[in-house]
Amino acid sequence: MTVSTIKNITIGQPVRRKGLSIFPLSVPGTRASGAKIADDTLVVTELTSANVPELQVHNPGNVPMLIPAGRVLEGGRQTRTVNVSILVPAGATIVIPVSCVEAGRWHGGRSFRDSKRVTSSEVRRSLARGVKSNIDLTGSKFSNQGEVWSAIDHELSLRSISHDSSLYLSAYDHVERDPELRVLAAELISNGVQPGQTGIAVAHGGKVIGMEVFASEEDLRASWEALVQSALLDLSIVDTTVEATATEEDVRSFVGAFADSPATTAKGTGIGTEYHVADATVVGQALVDDAGELMHAFAYADA
Fold first, then answer.
1. Which of 67, 139, 254, 260 places its Cα 20 to 30 Å from the Cα of 113?
2. Domain edges within the chain
3. In this structure, are residues 6 and 294 in contact, taking their beta carbons and an 8 Å threshold?
């Protein structure tokens, strides 16, 4: 399997609101491993000697668990986001690469909880570029932490949000405070995932901003609220009066640009193989399992 397999994607009719278009996507697959999105049974803790770019995870279940790149893990000594998508083997305990999204805190307990949020397109672009660069240069999956912090500062300042520890999650306060966005979030979350849908593409005006796909409808459903909230977080700082004109062909062109870009491959942190893309037009990652089946992929247009 290569990233080019993603081009075999089915694109449905979009939901259009306030200049935003959300296209349903479907990538065929069987998820033969039985893997599922990591839930609250996944145990996430600081290492015994806690350090910023790594956490420990334990999967107590009998099937692999997928931690999607960009998931925000809240708690510990500081809140982190996951650098790469990780398929944690059943029963395994492994160390995973993460980035800090709360620059002003280094105290607290050892355990983490799922925040039910993911990082925005700007933060994810910075993170993914740094990870690919480090894989190319040193083989590590660490991000450029300084660039991630800069992206978070920019996100907060755009929304006139001040937080003592520069916590990325506080950016979502902007969505909660905006009555129209709050109503729109409730509508989109309530509408849910279409039968057979495994991903989404998001466009503003006539430009595709990004896409995210999973192995199954169930995986997308488990991630749905986080993806909707992330899309609306981006919407909160753009012109909502523009006409939503993006087409299926625009989405297919964007997916093709990601699929055809040269990719750096790396052994998965858990099960499988990672593909990392970062060029002048698109930034993203994909993870396939050991059988070559796509588990997760995301891509964002370069700013």
1. 139
2. 3-301
3. yes
